[in-house]
Amino acid sequence: MNESRITVAMPKGRIFDDACRLLRNAGFSLPDTFESTRKLILDLDDEPFRFILAKPVDVPTYVEYGAVDIGIAGKDVLLESGRDVYEMVDLGISKCHMAVAGLPQHRSSNPYLKIATKYPHIASDYYRKRGEQVDLIALNGSIELAPIVGLADAIVDIVSTGQTLRENGLVEFDRLMDISSRLIVNPVSYRLKKKAIDQIVEKMIRATEGNKVGMD
Amino acid sequence: MTQPYMFEKPLGLRDLLPSAQRAIARLENIFQQELQRWGYDFLQTPALEYAETVGRASAIEDSQLFKFLDAEGHPVVLRPDMTTPIARIAASSLRKEPLPLRLAYTTALYRSQKKEGGHPSEFEQTGAELIGDATAYADVEIISLMIALLQKTGIDSIRLAIGHVGFVNAFFYDIVKDKKTVGQLRNLLYNKNDVGFREYVASLELPDESARKLNAFIDSRRLNNDETLDYLESLTSGSAIPVHSYYQNILELVDLLKTDHLEGKIDLDITLVPHLNYYTGFVFQGFGGGLGFPVASGGRYDDLLAQFDRPCPATGFGIRMDRLLSAARQSGIQTEPRKKAVIFDRANAGRALLFANQERNKGNAVVLQHADGIDDAAAFAEQFETIKRFLSSDRMETE
């Protein structure tokens, strides 16, 4: 852990552009090439910041182990991984929600409902709290396929606009929780670099104010 | 499961190879000497304890316990912490001893882990417990002792976060007046979920002033020590008596730490809540060597001994030796030993032995090795700082 530099894990993919916009609003002078580069590590020229570009599900891992000081991660990923990190700010970006969905009028012939999901912990937690025992099937993507081809009775997945569900003839049965991106911090980094991290947290809170308005 | 390979060990368990064992033994020696200098007596307890007594009182989650039946069919656990067995001893075998007791230990603890690397199921811990003293002086002794031990190891950037769960409980209860809600709020603190804390506060439909107070509580983590004290003082106005007395407690501790010149290493953070829920007062976590995890933790547990029928205040800490070792390595502390070798043949065995023993008496580590027993002379020689040969073939004794 470098004492003077702050390292930040950024999620590649869907959340990345939102996260970059927010960082620029918060006053970070990210290079113009930031969004287009294939590099995995980027240092800022005039500020003591290093960014690493990681797969979104891996961001909490980098942060928990102290490989980086702070990170931007979706609440879905945080809930699923249960990592020991500070969840300090709701950044209000990349908003979506976790939902149960399936084919309308589907009647299950299975003794236990079969649920396909990328989020086995979240799904298992949800059904246990409802007092239902289900069979979970872990998939890594295109979860919407599972009910259509008969692999599962329903799915638990994140829904943003609902377009994918509609185009595949699925309907939402239940809404589990709202999801957005969070600023997370390694607990030890926080102790050792408190001043610098608090400054970032305050900048981020201010940059986030705008996102709070008009939450859907 | 599938048939294990010959080299495999059960999940979460690992070997300590000579280099790691040497390094840990060195740290443990340092700790043992220092703890004895502070008047702490070492003790040992069995690795197995009854699940209904120590297992339950230790407040470790059931899924983390190694639990099975002993030969008589009683449920037993591999000890998941050392504070609880020591509480059992203080309440039974040492019941007649005058208080306060100062006890210390170095031992392996067992917690079943589902997670991946860096979370072993068996780890060494060195710790101290000060039993029977309710004053802030006892807390200061435990905190300064822990810092003294960490400093002796030579690791850099030692920091200590200090909180007070007694204050947290009293303050929350004063606002929400419901034990279950206090538990929920405390759990969100333990999970370090600030966002969830605020959402939960919003869902409680409290009066604006109460919600504002709870949210400001989370924000207080960002204050420096003096600001935190001012903030805590501001909370005491109009609060119930426990909040007042805990505040006085904190004030006293910070004052004493200032006297010990430890204030610079301290981060007073009232939002700090540890996972072991037997803590009742001060709680703390120690960091160092740039490691991503705390190397030490501890706190006051005034209710634990009552579970063994001897109500009695107590405070203590534990240092994770496995994490300390990683921290020491990250701090670049050299732990490789400097050994000398003496190589001899039959004709010179007596002289070689005499020389080796003289060196050993001086405190040097000496390997005495017959030349015929060496397989690869060059590889053998590389391990040593110096080599002295007592060989008749070349009639030379070389350094």
TrEMBL record, chain A:
Keywords: Amino-acid biosynthesis, ATP-binding, Cytoplasm, Glycosyltransferase, Histidine biosynthesis, Nucleotide-binding, Transferase
Enzyme category, top tier: transferase
Gene Ontology cellular-component terms listed: cytoplasm
Gene Ontology BP terms: L-histidine biosynthetic process
Pathway(s) the chain acts in: Amino-acid biosynthesis; L-histidine biosynthesis; L-histidine from 5-phospho-alpha-D-ribose 1-diphosphate: step 1/9
Job of this protein: Catalyzes the condensation of ATP and 5-phosphoribose 1-diphosphate to form N'-(5'-phosphoribosyl)-ATP (PR-ATP). Has a crucial role in the pathway because the rate of histidine biosynthesis seems to be controlled primarily by regulation of HisG enzymatic activity.
Protein name per its UniProtKB record: ATP phosphoribosyltransferase
Organism classification: Bacteria, Bacillati, Bacillota, Bacilli, Bacillales
Gene: hisG
TrEMBL record, chain B:
Pathway named in the protein's UniProt entry: Amino-acid biosynthesis; L-histidine biosynthesis; L-histidine from 5-phospho-alpha-D-ribose 1-diphosphate: step 1/9
Keyword field: Amino-acid biosynthesis, Cytoplasm, Glycosyltransferase, Histidine biosynthesis, Transferase
GO MF, one annotated term: glycosyltransferase activity
InterPro entries assigned: aa-tRNA-synth_II, aa-tRNA-synth_II/BPL/LPL, HisRS-like_core, HisRS/HisZ, HisZ, HisZ-C
A single cellular component GO annotation: cytoplasm
Domain Aminoacyl-transfer RNA synthetases class-II family profile: 26-337
Pfam families: HisZ-like, tRNA-synt_His
Lineage: superkingdom: Bacteria
Binding positions for L-histidine per the UniProt entry: D81, M82, T83, R111, Q125, E129, Y278, Y279
GO BP terms in the entry: histidyl-tRNA aminoacylation; L-histidine biosynthetic process
Subcellular location: Cytoplasm
General function of this protein: Required for the first step of histidine biosynthesis. May allow the feedback regulation of ATP phosphoribosyltransferase activity by histidine.
Entry's family note: Belongs to the class-II aminoacyl-tRNA synthetase family. HisZ subfamily.
Additional note from the record: This function is generally fulfilled by the C-terminal part of HisG, which is missing in some bacteria such as this one.
Subunit structure: Heteromultimer composed of HisG and HisZ subunits.
Entry protein name: ATP phosphoribosyltransferase regulatory subunit
Organism: Sporolactobacillus shoreae
Gene behind the chain: hisZ
